Amino acid sequence: MLNSSALSAWAPRALSILRIVAGLLLLQHGAQKLLGFPPGGQGGGLDLSTLAGWSGPIELVGGILIILGLFTRPAAFVLAGFTAVAYWMVHAGQSPYPINNGGELAVLYCFVFLYLVFAGPGAWALDNMIGRRRA
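^ thats the sequence. predicted structure below, dont judge the formating
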């Protein structure tokens, strides 16, 4: 059987893994929009005159900060709001059900980032190194 105290000891590391994977996935959205990589999206440009044009830089920079665990709580707060707005502006009008409107990923991102606001970055993060230096 699984030992809950042994699992609990790994919780900060598992939180870091969740943070890093979420950041890597979000980073891909921004990289595809701004850099055209990975291929397959409509990327390769930056049009800050549109709301959609702002999503690439937010996803790219936010993803990098989340991966590194740098300014994790404020970055996660911005990203939770960003993904909530993305859901309501892009997906919700198509159907009240995320499975039908294609918004499941936006909802999941929103709640993962919201969790990071409260839980912090986990064990492996630059935030922890900065915090140690100040103490």
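The helical segments are 4-9, 11-35, 51-68, 72-91, 98-101, 104-119, 126-134.
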